[in-house]
Amino acid sequence: MRIIISNTSGEPIYEQISTQIKNLIFTGELSEGDALPSIRSLAQELKISVITTKRAYEELEGDGFIETIPSKGSYVSRKNKELMKEKHLKLIEDKLIEVLEEANLLNLSLDDLKDMLQILYDSNK
């Protein structure tokens, strides 16, 4: 498992870890039941505080991505991948609702929004 930390990112380190592990799960690089490095070993590998790594793991566990078994370690959750995907779809919907509310304030048309989304989509590939 390879995690890259950016000190120039505005995102906190624990969120960078959490986001990258979530992405590894979604892409299938980490599968249900796979063991994660211990909190201590990941902290040493990344040269960061154990507290930061612990916070990332707690966030992942709270979101249902991993399960921690005392004295055994942390593992990719056996929860249904579809349930996790639904959570992300709901998050996207919530963000799109915010965008629609802002667009309505500016009287942007649906075509304008589609054009903006297409440009952003194409530039983010």
TrEMBL record:
Q: What is this protein called?
A: GntR family transcriptional regulator
Keyword match Transcription: yes
What organism, scientifically named, is this protein from? Clostridium manihotivorum
Domain of life of the organism encoding this protein: Bacteria
GO MF term set: DNA binding; DNA-binding transcription factor activity
**Domain called HTH gntR-type: residue spans:** 11-79
UniProt keyword annotations, A-Z: DNA-binding, Transcription, Transcription regulation
Indicate whether DNA-binding appears among the record's keywords: yes
